[in-house]
Amino acid sequence: xxxxxxxxxxxxxxxxxxxxxxxxxxxxxxxxxxxxxxxxxxxxxxxxxxxxxxxxxxxxxxxxxxxxxxxxxxxxxxxxxxxxxxxxxxxxxxxxxxxxxxxxxxxxxxxxxxxxxxxxxxxxxxxxxxxxxxxxxxxxxxxxxxxxxxxxxxxxxxxxxxxxxxxxxxxxxxxxxxxxxxxxxxxxx
Length: 189
Description:
By secondary structure, this protein is mostly beta strands. It has a single domain, classed as Sandwich (Jelly Rolls), CATH 2.60.120. It is 8% helix and 41% strand. The chain has helices at 35-40, 167-170, 175-180; strands at residues 4-9, 14-18, 22-24, 27-29, 49-56, 60-66, 73-79, 81-88, 99-105, 110-114, 118-124, 128-135, 144-146. Strand 3 (22-24) and strand 4 (27-29) form a beta hairpin. The radius of gyration is 16 Å and the shape is globular. The mean pLDDT is 95.
């Protein structure tokens, strides 16, 4: 059963995928990634790193991106519920500053694909939430940047007002800070 595109957002850049499941009295089975199906719908078919994150309710991770070795992310909730976000941060983009956010429950088996030139993040909404995401490049700490979760230039409507943040995310810069950096001129398609 091939993956289905449920919807596209921000000029077709952010894609929500639905994976049909085989279910019976034992439980379910889903093909979460199959290269030929992804290639057929125009998404990357080569991922170089898989990440798995666990967070308690109220933890917000993001907004993260990598400008040196930019990477796309294919995100899914495997336990609990989360609010997944992707924001266009490409200097000169007609959709600069636009964001897409969606509450996703593990039972829905949805995935959200965000291209390399978008900042991504999520907020855990259940007692404990697990997110798994595939990346099209390997992690490069020297090329990683963050944008403040509550940047007014983005205006993301997060479902929490006082999230639990890492020290790195608490001191993240603004979208304007990023756009003023020389790297921003080279970031994007």
